[in-house]
Amino acid sequence: MPCAATFFGAGLVYGAFSIAFQIPNLFRRLFGEGALSAASIPIFATVLTRDGRDSATLFASRLLTLLVVVLAGIALIGEVVLVVLRVTLPDSERTRLTLLLTAIMAPYVIIVCTIAVMGGLLNVLHSFALPTVAPIVLNVSMIIATVVGTTVWRHNDQAAITLLAGSVMLGGVLQLVMQLRGLRSRGLPVRVELTTRDANVRRVLRTMGPMTLGLAAVQVNTLADTLIAAACVPNPGAPAILFYAQRMYQFPLGVFAIAYAVVLFPTLSARAAADEMGAFRRTLAGGSTW
């Protein structure tokens, strides 16, 4: 964020990027790090503990394959909607740029949600370093793209911001490769396995329904705030200013609360799956993962 603020400021260009970037992040918070991870981690831990690694690999493969297929369909529909909006909305520089950047980053919806679920699976396998380090790859990719783009296109911020949007996709692909290799090294070689008849996958889908509704209220409101700022505030940089403010208040949440929960939740799930309720209560009360 400081890098983007330094090179792009809070004008029209980064305002368009902030709107476009919030679309995949909305799905990440709803499905990747939100409801889907919360629903799948306890079930994965139970399958791993009670049925063994082979059954856990099959469950993970089926869950991830179904997730990719569903998100690919959503991304495709989204691209069609963007074409329709391009034709129907009043033509303006901000509208064109926002729709272009959204179209570039729409497939990132598939990648970012898959990465988040894979990270949860790795946490259950007591691998915390890789899911933690993987987002750094995205940040480094974006920083390099920002510096290179604003240097090469010194007087063309729109070209530079387009490169930044492309770097999001590149960083996502690199993260995905890292997570796949991490799962394989942990003895969980996920593969393509499409079915909707798996009982555990159905349990995940049933469990995540109410969670998705609860999370949607907050996440959709956040996106709505940005769209209202873009539509109603005369300053074309209003979405960027709001985006920076949201990043600032989310900083302590991301550094402390989420880091704590990432370690604690898989441990609680493993305790519950092994029916170690005494250890579960001690872990929950003391926040200890040992």
Structure description:
The chain is mostly helical and 290 residues long. The protein has eleven helices and no strands. Helix 2 (12-32) runs parallel beside helix 8 (157-185) and helix 9 (199-232) packs antiparallel against helix 10. It is elongated, with a radius of gyration of 20 Å. The model has no long low-confidence stretch (mean pLDDT 81).
Topology (SSEs and partners):
Layout: H1 2-8, H2 12-32, H3 35-51, H4 53-88, H5 93-105, H6 108-124, H7 129-152, H8 157-185, H9 199-232, H10 238-273, H11 277-286
- Category by helix and strand content: mainly alpha
Total beta strands: 0
Q: In whole angstroms, how far apart are the ends?
A: 35 Å
Percent range for β-strand residues: under 5%
Sheet with the most strands, sense and barrel status: none
Q: Helix content range of the residues, please?
A: over 70%
Q: State Rg.
A: 20 Å
Instruction: State the low-pLDDT regions, or none.
Output: none
Number of separate helices:
11
Mean of residue pLDDT values: 81
**Per the principal axes of the C-alpha atoms, what is the gross shape?**
elongated
Order of helices and strands: HHHHHHHHHHH
